[in-house]
Design a protein that fits this description.
alpha/beta, TIM Barrel, 9 helices
């Protein structure tokens, strides 16, 4: 069976100027689908256009928590209208990121929480799942998912690097866990233990390309085709055939995102 890269950024520098080459390499690795993730209002048209010209690519709509508020801050009407496009499978990348507080307090990040709540509300409005980013903010992320009723639409905690306790709480909300190239890093022992314990019907694989290339390509520009190395390492961790990882991650992607041919 093939694989799907459940989270990549094909319109980012390093990939967008090599689109045909990247998609050809993706196929060569047996990665036949990709979800291209939006991170800013200004880039959504490019994210959508990439999906529209490539039938193996789908899109999301959302604003990354690292994007500071500005004059083009996203609103509910924009999110809902764009999310209704059948090529758009989810709302996000959204969430909370307190990693770079730089002297600010949690209270100073209320704008992130307001934006996250807006994405959850829009997801509920259109009935599509969430792609959630959380960094140094797991408690608040989980609390907001509960408070805003995110379990009604579900979603995925992407590029997961948190503890088993955080994973279990997300699973209890009906969310999926997506594993990236970080899983293959030698110092990722805790994450590897989480990956062994996750129920197979809640696991996705991704690259988050062009970042975080897995071993044996660590330090290089990442690309969707390298999802193959994440899946291979996951199979070794869990003591199963690589074909089994292909089977359950494909089924999980279809169940969560419900992609329609275009």
């Amino acid at each position: 069976m093939p694989l799907t890269d459940s989270h990549c950024h094909l319109n980012f520098p390093g990939l967008r100027e090599r689109e045909r080459e990247i998609l050809d390499a993706m196929r060569e690795h047996g990665v036949l689908r990709a979800l291209n993730i939006s991170t800013q209002v200004a880039e959504f048209d490019d994210v959508l256009a990439c999906a529209q010209r490539n039938p193996q690519v789908w899109a999301t709509v959302g604003v990354h928590p690292d994007t500071p508020p500005g004059p083009d801050e996203v609103d509910m009407a924009t999110l809902v209208a764009r999310a209704r496009n059948p090529v758009v499978l989810a709302l996000g990348e959204t969430g909370l990121d307190y990693f770079r507080l730089e002297g600010r307090t949690r209270e100073d990040m209320q704008w992130q929480r307001d934006r996250f709540a807006l994405h959850i509300q829009a997801a509920r409005e259109v009935g599509k799942p969430l792609v959630v980013h959380t960094r140094a903010a797991a408690d608040d992320t989980l609390a907001m998912l509960r408070e805003q009723g995110a379990e009604q639409v579900g979603g995925v905690l992407h590029c997961f690097t948190e503890s088993w306790e955080v994973a279990r709480a997300a699973l209890d909300l009906g969310f999926y866990i997506s594993l990236s190239g970080i899983l293959t890093f030698k110092n990722a022992r805790e994450l590897q233990d989480v990956a062994r314990r996750l129920p197979e019907d809640r696991i996705l694989v991704e690259t988050d390309s062009p970042y975080l290339a897995p071993v044996p390509h660590r330090g290089q520009t990442n690309q969707p085709g390298y999802t193959r190395f994440v899946a291979r390492f996951l199979a070794e961790l869990r003591g199963c055939d690589e074909s089994r990882v292909e089977e359950f991650t494909e089924a999980n992607f279809d169940r969560l995102f419900k992609p329609v041919a275009h």
